[in-house]
């Protein structure tokens, strides 16, 4: 008897109606506030990057399916989601070819070499981002100030198109958008030189919690607006696409050590709110670490996984060589998932100690 | 404070499938006209098949024995109506593999006449508990909730076990099904009578009837019936209203909800002092004891959007599903699946010319819209199945081990604790047919077990053989040595030795 010979008779005969496309659509919907904010904050270049990565990801998926002679699963939008997520982790003026390399890498090496959706070990968008960061450190670490979609500083569509495709503005002159370090980068460099947190973030840099909350600070496209991301995250939890375990434990994993060190030495270690609002923490906690395929299936496993992501992020941010650690932390924790799953099985009915 | 928890507990996981009980819950139980032919399988219960005691050409009364119980866990089978046995042959039955089974084919004589010798007991509560149990056993009563475990076994607990609680399972948590609800609405007194008899057989003082709150009429009827006779007996019967949750009607989950305790793995409810019987079984016990009527009919819910006239019907065992469907106005054109039992655990039928058996609580005619079969995607590890499983298993990994035939891993995965409730597959967004893989995995493990036992036996046998051969060889060597020694001795001591050795040698021969 082969496993497939009995399929049609198997109970149950009804289904709750959840489907992979529905999950992907919901996640994309939950990302919309952050996506829209990224365009509002960073202007046309943001939209172009979003379009390029998403299109590349979907095209790669389509071609792979063609080659393997399988029905195209583009309808499930998982490739589109990967593309959007990748774009949201990129700097605002990322050149087109970096976007293309990232999109292809995410689908091809992030997903297909493992056997497709469901078999990949690492979050495709994140592994692509890590790859880009290592391969193209310059392009991946230039942080132009947000110029907005409208307003005086905003780039026109043509300028933006030209900027992303050639590196020059349409008028031919070199883009000299004002760049500045991200808050985490600023902290990393200045405190690294022996100065205090206050000196790093105050003064000329003038870090503002309000800007970090709304998103009008420099950073990757989709990571800056804490409020937009939180909105999407809460929506995902309410829709039961994700559970609270990973985000909550990830926040705890970073905020607890952040609080302890801040209390111990506030001049060297920034306060927990700074850690919460800057960098990719909220994007990572709600949308990256919670990627179903690459996170544990058991509740306890999810809690350990999330806590690990948070703790590693804190360690990398505070003592590591990179100013931001969310991507690395999640990718490292992805690798522990098989183990976590294996050793965090719930106690089976009737097998609890008190019963025996 | 007894064994019943003061507050209802929750079991882990569970799902909320839409009830669809409105299709048939208003339909009063109706009898079905005698069909032209009844096909009565000899094996309708958990345990050994019954052995035929009739032959072709025999005429039988309603209630006559057709098959006698074989062995400790088995159940008798009786003629559902009066008529002639026209054949005893293999016939298709509702079974996952589409297997045939030995059945008695009866042509009814139209009189539907009980055997006049069948007599009930006027005052069952004055019987010895053992006598009750024998009546139930002889009447072929099995659990009517679907598990079809012979009921007498669960009415005769081992002497060293005390039964603190009789738990009546009136949960009917499977969507669509309404037969138990109707039974409680229409025959609440009979249910209570049955419970009294069971309490007496078990010598138990406490009974809880668990009903989900989506059956307000059944709850009211049972509460009234309990109140009406509360003063008559020392034993307390209580109706406990439960919030709707699938699979609350599973024995283990119901026990957990009502008592707050779990049945230890690989143990029985009796081990924590609980016995669970289905509500319809209570009525069958009552009919068996008070009237001497064996179990020859049951109430079946015929429902689903694919049937023209949903109904709750009292059906004779052996009535073909075809006949029932025809009685209910036939199937609609967009029929997709006919299921025997409920939609979560029932069995899809390959063909509809199969008989209703004792464990069949429903016949579902599902349309494409109600039951859509979507292609299987690989698991996306969303964890929904883990959250839904009432046993707290990790369904996705068990299914993976079964699918990829990693039997070693599978045997470590508590697969046999799975109750096949289907909650996991119900929620799976990737449409992984999890329960199918579990059934497959269980079979694979069992056959591997058998093979291993066989192999072990073979190994043991060959070991013994090797040992024997080795011994024989040794024996030969020894003889050779002896021979040599003898020869040598002969040469030395001449005729003296010649007289002793032949005797020793022949002794050795006999041993080898
Ligand atoms: S519900 Fe389905 S897709 Fe989700 S983890 Fe379980 S088997 Fe995998
Ligand atoms: S079918 Fe088995 S694994 Fe699935 S939910 Fe039910 S008990 Fe758990």
The kinds of small molecule bound in this structure are: iron/sulfur cluster
- Uncertain runs of chain A are 1-7
**Taking all residues together, what is the mean pLDDT of chain A?**
89
- Compute the number of helices of chain A: 15
Order of strands across the biggest sheet of chain B?
Answer: 1-14-13-17-15-16
What does the overall shape of chain B look like?
A: globular
Q: What's the quaternary structure here? A: heterodimer
* Proportion of residues in β-strands of chain A: under 5%
The gross shape of chain A turns out to be globular
Secondary-structure element sequence of chain A?
HHHHHHHHHHHHHHH
* Helix run count of chain B: 14
Structural class of chain B: alpha/beta
What is the CA-atom radius of gyration of chain A, in angstroms? Answer: 21 Å
Number of strands of chain A: 0
Can you tell me about this structure?
- The complex is a heterodimer of chains A (356) and B (512).
- Chain A has 356 residues and is mainly alpha-helical.
- Chain A has one domain.
- Chain A contains 15 helices and no strands.
- Mean pLDDT of chain A is 89; it is low at 1-7.
- In chain B, α1 packs across α3 and α9 crosses α12 (434-493).
- Among the domains of chain B are: 21-29 and 125-316, NADH-ubiquinone oxidoreductase 51kDa subunit (Rossmann fold, 3-Layer(aba) Sandwich), CATH 3.40.50; 379-488, Fumarate Reductase Iron-sulfur Protein, Chain B, domain 2, CATH 1.10.1060.
- In chain B, the strands form 4 sheets. Chain B has a 6-stranded mixed β-sheet. A 4-stranded antiparallel β-sheet of chain B has the order 2-8-7-4, with no helix packed on it. A 4-stranded parallel β-sheet of chain B has the order 11-10-9-12, sandwiched between helices.
- Chain B is α/β, with parallel strands linked by helices and 512 residues long.
- The longest helix of chain B has 60 residues, at 434-493.
- The model of chain B is unreliable at 501-512 (pLDDT under 50).
- At the A-B interface, α1 of A face β16, α8, α9, α11 and α12 of B.
């Amino acid at each position: 008897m082969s496993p497939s010979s009995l399929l049609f008779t198997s109970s149950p005969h009804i289904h709750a109606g959840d489907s992979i496309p529905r999950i992907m659509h919901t996640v994309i919907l939950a990302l919309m506030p952050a996506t829209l904010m990224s365009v509002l904050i960073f202007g046309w270049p943001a939209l172009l990057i979003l379009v390029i990565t998403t299109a590349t990801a979907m095209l790669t998926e389509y071609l792979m399916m063609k080659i393997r002679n399988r029905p195209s699963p583009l309808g499930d939008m998982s490739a589109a989601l990967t593309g959007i997520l990748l774009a949201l982790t990129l700097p605002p003026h990322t050149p087109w070819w970096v976007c293309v390399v990232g999109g292809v890498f995410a689908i091809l090496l992030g997903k297909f070499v493992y056997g497709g959706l469901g078999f990949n070990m690492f979050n495709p968008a994140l592994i692509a981002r890590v790859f880009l960061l290592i391969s193209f450190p310059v392009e991946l670490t230039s942080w132009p100030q947000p110029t907005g979609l409208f307003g005086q500083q905003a780039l026109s569509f043509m300028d933006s198109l030209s900027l992303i495709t050639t590196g020059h503005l349409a008028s031919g002159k070199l883009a000299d958008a004002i760049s500045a370090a991200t808050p985490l980068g600023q902290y990393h460099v200045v405190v690294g030189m022996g100065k205090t947190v206050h000196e790093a973030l105050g003064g000329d840099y003038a870090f503002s919690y309000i800007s970090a909350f709304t998103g009008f600070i420099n950073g990757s496209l989709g990571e800056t607006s804490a409020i937009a991301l939180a909105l999407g995250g809460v929506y995902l939890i309410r829709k039961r696409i994700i559970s609270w375990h990973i985000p909550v434990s990830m926040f705890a994993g970073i905020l607890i050590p952040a609080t302890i060190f801040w209390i111990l030495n506030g001049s060297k270690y920034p306060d927990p709110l700074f850690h919460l609002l800057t960098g990719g923490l909220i994007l990572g906690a709600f949308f990256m670490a919670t990627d179903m395929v690459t996170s544990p299936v058991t509740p306890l496993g999810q809690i350990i996984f999330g806590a690990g992501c948070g703790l590693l992020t804190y360690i990398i941010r505070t003592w590591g060589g990179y100013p931001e650690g969310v991507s690395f932390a999640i990718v490292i924790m992805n690798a522990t998932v098989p183990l976590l799953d294996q050793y965090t099985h719930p106690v089976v009915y009737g097998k609890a100690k008190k019963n025996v | 404070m007894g064994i019943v928890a003061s507050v209802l507990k929750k079991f882990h996981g569970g799902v909320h499938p839409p009830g669809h009980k409105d299709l048939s819950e208003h339909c009063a139980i109706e009898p079905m006209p005698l069909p032209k032919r009844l096909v009565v399988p000899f094996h309708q219960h958990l345990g050994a098949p019954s052995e035929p005691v009739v032959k072709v050409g025999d005429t039988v009364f309603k209630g006559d024995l057709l098959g006698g119980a074989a062995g400790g866990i088995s159940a008798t089978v009786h003629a559902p109506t009066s008529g002639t046995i026209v054949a005893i042959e293999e016939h298709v039955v509702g079974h996952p593999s589409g297997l045939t089974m030995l059945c008695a084919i009866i042509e009814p004589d139209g009189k539907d006449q009980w055997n006049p010798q069948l007599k009930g007991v006027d005052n069952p509560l004055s019987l010895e508990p053992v006598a009750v149990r024998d009546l139930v056993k002889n009447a072929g009563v099995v659990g009517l909730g679907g598990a079809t475990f012979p009921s007498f076994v669960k009415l005769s607990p081992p002497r060293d076990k005390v039964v603190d609680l009789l738990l009546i399972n009136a949960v009917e948590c499977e969507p669509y099904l309404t037969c138990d609800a109707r039974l409680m609405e229409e025959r609440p007194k009979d249910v209570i009578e049955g419970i009294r008899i069971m309490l007496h057989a078990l010598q138990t003082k406490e009974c809880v009837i668990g009903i989900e709150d989506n059956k307000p009429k059944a709850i009211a009827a049972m509460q009234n019936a309990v109140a009406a006779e509360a003063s008559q007996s020392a034993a307390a019967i209580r109706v406990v209203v439960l919030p709707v949750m699938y699979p609350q009607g599973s024995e283990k989950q119901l026990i957990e909800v009502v008592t707050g305790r779990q049945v230890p793995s690989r143990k029985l409810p009796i081990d924590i002092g609980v016995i669970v019987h289905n509500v319809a079984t209570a009525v069958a016990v009552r009919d068996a004891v008070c009237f001497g009527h064996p179990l020859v009919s049951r109430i079946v819910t015929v429902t689903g959007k694919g049937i023209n006239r949903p109904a709750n019907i009292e059906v004779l065992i052996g009535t073909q599903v075809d006949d029932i469907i025809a009685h209910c106005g036939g199937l609609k054109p967009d029929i997709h699946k006919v299921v025997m039992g409920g939609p979560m655990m029932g069995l899809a039928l390959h063909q509809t010319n199969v008989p209703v058996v004792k464990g069949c609580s429903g016949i579902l005619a599902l349309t494409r819209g109600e039951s859509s079969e979507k292609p299987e995607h690989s698991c996306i590890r969303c964890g929904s199945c883990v959250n839904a499983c009432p046993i707290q298993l990790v369904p996705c990994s068990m299914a993976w081990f079964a699918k990829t035939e990693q039997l070693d891993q599978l045997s470590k995965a508590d697969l046999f604790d799975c109750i096949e409730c289907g909650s996991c597959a119900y929620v799976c967004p990737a449409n992984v047919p999890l329960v199918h893989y579990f059934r497959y995995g269980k079979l694979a493990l069992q056959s591997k077990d058998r093979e291993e036992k066989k192999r072990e036996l073979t190994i043991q046998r060959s070991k013994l053989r090797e040992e024997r051969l080795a011994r024989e060889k040794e024996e030969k060597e020894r003889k050779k040595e002896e021979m040599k020694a003898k020869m040598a001795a002969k040469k030395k001591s001449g005729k003296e030795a010649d007289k002793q050795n032949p005797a020793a040698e022949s002794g050795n021969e006999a041993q080898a």
